[in-house]
Automatic annotation (TrEMBL):
Keywords per UniProt: ATP-binding, Nucleotide-binding
Source species, domain of life: Bacteria
Single GO term (MF): ATP hydrolysis activity
Membrane spanning stretches: none
Domain ORC1/DEAH AAA+ ATPase: 134-278
Gene3D superfamilies with a match to the protein in the record: P-loop containing nucleotide triphosphate hydrolases
Protein name in UniProt: ATP-binding protein
Length: 490
């Protein structure tokens, strides 16, 4: 594909049309200009990024090696979640374009009619139209530090942001296609700020003057939304990514969700939301969004467990050691790295970098458990309360940090019920009720509770004669608000 430079200096790609084994994709220039559909091996190859590494660099002076170690921050090791997100992103873009074929007479008629209504200020976003959107939305919810935004950006870097068309199947087609755009949710959930950000970002990429053309000081949000829609149609916008969506938590949720639903319904623009676990209740409470996410793409990205996935990630970075003495990865080091990072990929990389810095500065020149512990003590002080909460497994402690809340795991029996064919549903449902009743009776008779059930504490208090209040303090359910010398008073 030939590169083209827009008048504003931005790089674009000349359209090259691919043939797909999917029939409906081969009549739409927006879809055919996208890269071929990638298999799993191709996805991994395209995402994998490794730092430059030469073994002889281990012999360089320490003053150089402490800089070289920072190359590890560029490393990107694909994991199963990355493949899942890749497929979600490209599926949303392709499917969103299906109903927006610029050579479809009905769609062109709808665009022209919508444009006239918007110019005449008679467009009603709540009115029903003949346009049947194929746009949907995706959701990537995960801990801070798991690489959500980095992953989306890495995936989108595999398709040109701007594609320039000239002719399609022998027909004149002078069109600039903006495949994707990423916006940041304003910290105050301001719709107007988001709208202004959209116009400015489009102008920055394409060198257009939409901001001056459409935006005025007194223009309301209700007036801006149709203008965003018509601009999206004119530039063939394929995907809108909304990052840091947890900022909607405090205000503007309902209005903002109306905003995005209108973009999908009336203008056919797919949306991907990226946020921390604090944003998950927003989508659970919005049926219209939850319905579109279900079946289209919902990636809940908790921290890694101490299993094969964690070991794969640790093995992928372990060979990049710039200490004089290479240290083999063993079970003891695996365990300490998991304990001190709790499977959060960003912390794993940072710990590995800082451990090498410590080994180089100390003159030990090798990775040991003691050096890992010293590194954590000196450099991970701010993260200690959060990691302690994760290590405890206590949901009450974890709940203090909204970005660390895990999504609830589905009940195994209920999952089995949903997986059964309809004719076996009643049988499975009866089994579920029987097991649930049996467990309820057992718990009632034996007073056995889960390890994190507060009733277990009360039961222990009754048996031992220890005051329940004291046991609740010892187990971390109550903060003892006593002042100790040296405590910071705010």
């Amino acid at each position: 594909m030939n590169k083209i430079y827009l008048p504003n200096g931005m790089e674009a790609q000349e359209a090259h049309y691919n043939e797909f084994p999917i029939e409906e994709y081969n009549t739409n220039p927006y879809i055919q200009a996208l890269p071929p559909i990638a298999d799993k091996k191709t996805i991994i190859r395209n995402l994998l990024t490794v730092p430059n590494f030469k073994e002889e660099e281990r012999q360089l002076d320490s003053s150089y090696r402490v800089h070289i170690v920072n190359r590890l921050y560029k490393l990107f090791q694909p994991l199963p979640q990355h493949v899942q997100i890749w497929n979600m992103v490209f599926s949303l873009i392709s499917q969103g374009y299906l109903a927006r074929n610029p050579f479809n007479k009905e769609y062109r008629r709808y665009v022209n009619a919508t444009g006239k209504q918007i110019i005449n200020r008679s467009f009603d976003i709540n009115s029903r139209t003949d346009f049947r959107t194929t746009a949907s939305c995706g959701l990537v919810i995960g801990y801070s530090g798991m690489g959500k935004t980095t992953t989306i950006n890495k995936i989108l870097s595999n398709v040109s942001s701007v594609i320039v068309h000239d002719t399609y199947n022998g027909q004149h087609f002078n069109q600039t296609q903006l495949v994707h755009i990423t916006l940041q949710t304003p910290h105050n959930a301001s719709l107007k700020a988001l709208s202004l950000q959209f116009f400015m970002k489009v102008d920055e990429i394409l060198g257009t003057n939409n901001f001056k053309k459409y935006v005025s000081r007194n223009l309301s949000v209700d007036a801006m939304l149709p203008l965003m829609g018509i601009v999206s149609q004119n530039i063939g916008l394929g995907l809108m990514v909304i990052d840091e969506v947890q900022h909607l938590q405090n205000r503007g949720v309902q209005q903002m969700m109306n905003y995005f639903v209108t973009l999908m319904n009336s203008f056919g623009v797919p949306v991907i939301f990226i946020g921390t676990p604090a944003s998950y209740p927003i989508f659970q409470n919005e049926f219209r969004i939850a319905r579109r996410v279900t079946g289209s793409g919902e990636v809940i990205w908790n921290n890694m467990n101490n299993d094969e996935e964690f070991r794969l990630f640790l093995n992928s970075i372990w060979k990049y050691q710039w200490n004089r003495k290479f240290t083999q990865l063993n079970d003891e080091l695996i365990q300490i790295f998991y304990e001190e990072t709790q499977g959060i990929s960003d912390l794993i990389i940072k710990l590995f970098v800082n451990v090498q810095h410590m080994a180089i500065h100390s003159g030990k020149e090798e990775l040991t458990v003691d050096i890992v512990k010293r590194t954590v003590r000196d450099n991970f002080k701010m993260m200690k309360p959060m990691l302690d909460a994760l290590r405890s497994g206590n949901p009450y402690k974890i709940a203090k940090y909204e970005d660390l809340r895990k999504s609830e795991q589905k009940n195994n029996i209920r999952s089995e019920v949903l997986a059964q064919p309809t004719k076996n549903y009643n049988e499975a449902r009866t089994k579920e009720r029987t097991v649930a009743t049996s467990n309820k009776l057992k718990n009632k008779m034996k007073q056995e509770y889960e390890s994190n059930d507060i009733r277990l504490i009360l039961d222990q208090a009754n048996k031992s004669g220890t005051p329940a209040y004291q046991l609740l303090i010892e187990h971390g359910y109550i903060d003892e608000m006593t002042y100790k010398q040296g405590d910071l008073i705010v």
